[in-house]
Amino acid sequence: MKHLLALFSACSILASCSSESSEKPTPSNEITFNKNEVTKTPDGIMLKKVLTSANQFSSCREVWINSYKFDLAVEGKDTTYLATSDHLFRTPEKLHVGTTFAEIPGKLRKTLSKEPGWGYYVTLPSGWNLGFCEGAGCTDSEPTVSSKVKWIFKRK
């Protein structure tokens, strides 16, 4: 029941997102879980973890929302992190994974933030963030005009 509220919140967050590509089926407003959300190792079972900030890993589940794959991390009843690297997902601003830094409007590029060891990100008016990873440490240098969005996320 706890996760139901978190999933409802995630669905609400994504309700304003659109898809302009014919490569994916028509969105169905359906949320499904990946049945392979655990990894079996010789030492036992390991839950999927995702780096949600420079100093925090969170357990997450892979979910499909409107035919897009996301990593969803919840704490209690709250969604704490929702991210995708699906290049077909579009933010309300029509930006996507693969968009170059130069294609982002100048006013938005000025919101570029750096989180050492995690990445750079641009915050959008919709609340989504465009993530950039530059170099082995992801913050080795600032994004250039040809740098591409690697992932899109929201976090608490």
Defining traits:
mainly beta, 2 domains, eight-stranded antiparallel beta sheet, 12 strands
What would you say about this model in short?
By secondary structure, this protein is mostly beta strands. The protein has helices at 2-14, 106-109, and strands at 31-33, 38-41, 44-47, 49-53, 56-59, 61-65, 68-75, 78-84, 113-115, 119-123, 129-132, 151-155. The chain folds into two domains: 2-84, no CATH class; 101-155, no CATH class.
Describe this structure in words.
- With 156 residues, the protein is mainly β.
- The protein folds into two domains: 2-84, no CATH class; 101-155, no CATH class.
- The protein contains two helices and twelve strands, in the order αββββββββαββββ.
- A hairpin with a 5-residue loop joins β10 (119-123) and β11 (129-132).
- Mean pLDDT is 76; it is low at 1-35.
Helix-strand layout with pairing:
Elements: H1 2-14, E1 31-33, E2 38-41, E3 44-47, E4 49-53, E5 56-59, E6 61-65, E7 68-75, E8 78-84, H2 106-109, E9 113-115, E10 119-123, E11 129-132, E12 151-155
Antiparallel strand pairs: 1-6, 2-3, 4-5, 6-7, 7-8, 8-12, 9-10, 10-11, 11-12
